[in-house]
Design the sequence.
């Protein structure tokens, strides 16, 4: 008989349907939130008319980027990206709701608050938006160099054997059993309770409060049972900020419970790695050189969550002593969702191709 380990206590409760997830906490008094999302991957928003949506039965409010700006809520500001290739470091602020420019499919353009999910669907359908498709965003978001490239290439050129390894890890999504979702509940003391599906409630509280300009003791974040995360639910998203702001403004409890389809459009993704590694070996098949040139699909709003491969750069050599190593890692802008550290972050699938 095994001893010395702690037995799991939660299995019976979860397996018999007694788990407590975000959707289990909705009441009849809870309002519902939904988002109008772009059908384009790259476009300019020419006009946005929400007047017809305001006439939908059961609608409470419709908010746009102008409303957020009037409330003092700016974009999510990300740190400057490193550039070691002679380019200029830049940052890529991510708007909570888009007003002029669409940079990837699924970007939220407007938020509707209603008494039911059916009213949300009717209101979103009633919003009139005109967009003009534009060429997709492209360019270098960040660039990092590691090791001594000159020494590594010189060693590689003198190697008895050279092997080239292609790397390919396409974009992937977490597809968690419980989609992202949250309930924002204003409190009588002016604070706000935020119940959500997150793996990091403390970081989420700090990020939301910074975005809202609040002291951290004004917000309490709760995470009971979480139906999967895998890196997806470890930070503040634009929906978190919009929901907290709307609940505080209206003084009402509001839930955002995305469908699986909406999750696929709005969830950040992982991986997106392509490139190659060259390995040089001497006559005794000892590795004497490794060089790598890697591209990261950093998406439309890159931030430091796209640095997975750079943070795991030592994985190129593992436990082995290799005297000459160099790597270039380039983050490429694209009309796709931002990256998150999704499962096995910073690792890549390799296909061996011998020269």
Sequence:
């Amino acid at each position: 008989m095994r001893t010395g380990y702690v037995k799991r206590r939660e299995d019976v409760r979860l397996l018999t349907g007694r788990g407590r997830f975000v959707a289990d906490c909705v009441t009849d008094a809870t309002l519902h939130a939904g988002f109008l999302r772009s059908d384009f991957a790259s476009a300019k928003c020419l006009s946005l008319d929400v007047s017809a949506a305001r006439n939908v039965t059961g609608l409470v409010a419709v908010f746009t980027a102008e409303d957020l700006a009037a409330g003092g809520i700016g974009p999510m500001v990300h740190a400057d990206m490193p550039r070691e290739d002679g380019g200029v470091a830049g940052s890529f602020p991510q708007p909570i709701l888009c007003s002029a420019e669409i940079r990837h499919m699924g970007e939220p353009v407007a938020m509707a608050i209603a008494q039911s999910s059916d009213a949300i669907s009717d209101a979103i359908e009633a919003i009139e938006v005109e967009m003009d498709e534009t060429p997709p965003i492209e360019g270098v978001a960040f660039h990092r160099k590691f090791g001594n490239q000159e020494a590594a290439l010189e060693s590689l050129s003198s190697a008895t054997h050279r092997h080239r390894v292609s790397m390919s890890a396409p974009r992937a999504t977490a597809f968690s059993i419980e989609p992202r979702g949250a309930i924002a509940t204003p409190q009588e003391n002016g604070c706000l309770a935020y119940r959500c599906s997150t793996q990091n409630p403390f970081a989420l509280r700090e990020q939301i409060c910074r975005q809202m300009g609040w002291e951290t003791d004004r917000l309490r974040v709760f995470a009971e049972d979480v139906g999967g995360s895998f890196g997806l639910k470890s930070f503040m998203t634009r929906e978190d900020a919009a929901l907290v702001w709307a609940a505080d403004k209206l003084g009402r409890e509001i839930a955002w419970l995305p469908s699986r389809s909406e999750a696929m459009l709005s969830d950040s993704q992982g991986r997106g790695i392509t490139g190659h590694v060259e390995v040089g070996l001497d006559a005794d098949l000892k590795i004497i050189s490794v060089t790598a040139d890697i591209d990261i699909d950093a998406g439309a709003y890159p931030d430091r969550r796209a640095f997975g491969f750079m943070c795991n750069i030592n994985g190129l050599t593992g436990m082995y002593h290799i005297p000459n190593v160099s790597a270039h890692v380039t983050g490429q802008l694209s009309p796709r969702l931002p990256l998150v550290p999704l499962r096995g972050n910073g690792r890549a699938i390799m296909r061996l191709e011998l020269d």
Q: What stands out?
A: The chain has a mean pLDDT of 93. The radius of gyration is 24 Å.
